[in-house]
Amino acid sequence: MTSGLLCLLALPCLLGQATGDLEPLILSTPSSSFPDPVLSSSFIPGSSSNNSFGPSAGSVTQSLSNFTGFEDDHGTCQCSVILPDTTFPVQRVEHLEVTAHILSQKFEKELSKVREYVQLISVYEKKLFNLTVRVEIMEKDTISYTELDFELIKIEVKEMEKLITQLKGSVVGSTTIVDQLEVEIRNMTLLVEKLETLDKNNVLAIRREILALKTRLKECEASKGENVPVTPPPLAPGSCGHGGVVNISKPAVVQLNWRGFAYKYGAWGRDYSPQHPEGGLYWVAPLNTDGRTLEYYRLHNTLDDLLLYINAQDHRITYGQGGGTAVYNNYMYVNWYNTGNIAKINLSNNRAEVTQTLPNAAYNNRFSYANVGWQDIDLAVDENGLWVIYSTEASTGNMVISKLNDTTLVVLNTWYTKQYKPSVSNAFMVCGVLYATHIVNTKEEEIFYYYDTNSGKEGRLDITMHKMQERVQSINYHPFEQKLFVYNDGYLLNYDLTFNQEPK
Predict the structure, then answer these.
(1) Is position 31 within any domain?
(2) How many domains is the chain built from?
(3) Looking at the DSSP assignment, which residues form a beta bridge with residue 267?
């Protein structure tokens, strides 16, 4: 903004009067024609402009702008000059100060963040350097940290061997459990030696086994001084002189199936041969990722080979379906793809030697287990031989049990139950008795139903069965070991069964 300043200049010299040594100033135009509008030219004494007056040469020069002038009746020259506003802009300066303060605070805040980042970068740089050094050492040296772990494991196993030797001489009553522990510790020693030379990635698994053994040893040591009644000797392997299943152990995780996490459906177990009950190879048959097709299976001669992924025999077939697979007397029995047939495969040459239709059997997900597809036909093995669990249209989905001739696959006898198969999560046979499970929650199943083919009786049970993952895809029983081999969302689990000591 600008303000006007009216200057009344008494300039008597304008009319030709000289003051002092100044020469008389003469108007460049007649006084009657002096301009009224505001001029953009300068009022400079001594200049020759039309709107200026000039003193003699050598006078001081002044520059004025935006002025008007006229001569009054008395001959006095009066000028009106508009000058710029000289008021100091206090508000603007205050606003600039506030803005500068805010910017300064923001700058300090960002600067503090930068300092923190610099410190963090320095810390991580040191960690990265240390890690690089450790990796370089491991790459150059053949000795890895796992070898120290194995040495520690050996020491722990030796301590357990000493403890078991002391227990054998001090336990009151039967020493069956102690003898069993001694055998397991001896097997553990051999397994550690094999793991050390062949596979150094299973240290964690072996540590779990040692922890379980230590717990059992502590229990034995705690009870050695008590007057415990002598327990009856355990049943002979493969014997049916008991009153049925009354309990089941917690699961022992053997390992993930050899094809990986994506292969959540399948089956596994151990071959049972009445002629050589203590022998039998281990088999693992994961289905393809579609959860239906059985295309590949693997055989191992021992459990140690299975644990170490060594000495494996891989085979491929093109006609397997579902996880109802069973192995008996060196033959694998499967449901033929897209049919109600059963195939008998010779494990020595991987050939299907016999194919037989299961009469009236529903198939292709008509009456499969709950949450498990393509297992309408479920094959099973127990002390009495080969069985098949299925449903028919005539049974309206209720479970049907048939005893098979393991040579010809002809049905020898059939029993009809009142249990609806799609409400069952899985089933297995023990001494001619069908045991069925159902889901309780994501961590528990329950053996809730049985059907005894020996007497035709059926009823309810409440035996809790813990699991590692949500779904149980298959259950296979081994008569000699009296164990369940469970395929649980790709993981291979073992369970020990406990039987009623009193005969039926």
Answers:
(1) yes
(2) 3
(3) 285
pLDDT tens sequence across 42-72: 343 444 444 444 444 344 444 555 667 778 8
| Co-location of 250 and 317 in the same domain | yes
**Residue (of 313, 319, 347) closest to 332 by Cα position:** 347
pLDDT given for residue 203 in this prediction: 60
- Per-residue pLDDT reduced to its tens digit, 195-211: 666 554 556 566 667 77
Q: Which of 55, 87, 119 is the last residue before a domain boundary?
A: 87
Of 34-38, 98-102, 106-110, 444-448, least confident by mean pLDDT is: 34-38
- Tell me the pTM: 0.59
Query: Does residue 118 lie within any of the structural domains?
Result: no
Residues 156 and 212 in one domain: yes
Residue 309 backbone zone (phi > 0: left; psi -120 to 50: alpha; other: beta): left
Angle at 310 between CA 304 and CA 316, to 5 degrees: 115
Regarding whether 435 and 355 lie in a shared domain, the answer is yes
Lowest mean pLDDT among 73-87, 295-309, 374-388: 73-87
Same domain, 255 and 174: no
Length of the chain: 504
Top-confidence residue, 198 or 94: 94
Mark whether 354 and 418 lie in a shared domain: yes
Phi, psi of 193 (to 5 degrees): -65, -40
Assess whether 193 and 289 both reside in one domain: no
- Considering the domain architecture, whether residues 51 and 154 belong to the same structural domain is answered as no
Same domain, 214 and 280: no
d(CA 379, CA 264): 19
Nearest to 394 by CA among 361, 422, 426, 370: 361
Would the CA dihedral through 472, 473, 477, 482 be positive or negative? negative
* pLDDT tens-digit map of 429-485: 999 999 999 999 999 999 999 999 999 999 999 999 999 999 999 999 999 999 999
**Structural domain boundaries enclosing 202:** 145-223
**Which residues have CB under 8 Å from 133's CB, separation 6+?**
none
| H or E segment to which residue 158 belongs | helix 145-170
Distance CA 84, CA 92 (A): 18
- Asked if residue 113 belongs to a domain, the reply is no
**How far apart are the C-alpha atoms of 301 and 282, rounded to whole Å?**
6
Point out which residues pair with 433 in neighbouring strands. Answer: 430, 452
Asked if the structure places residue 127 within a domain, the reply is: no
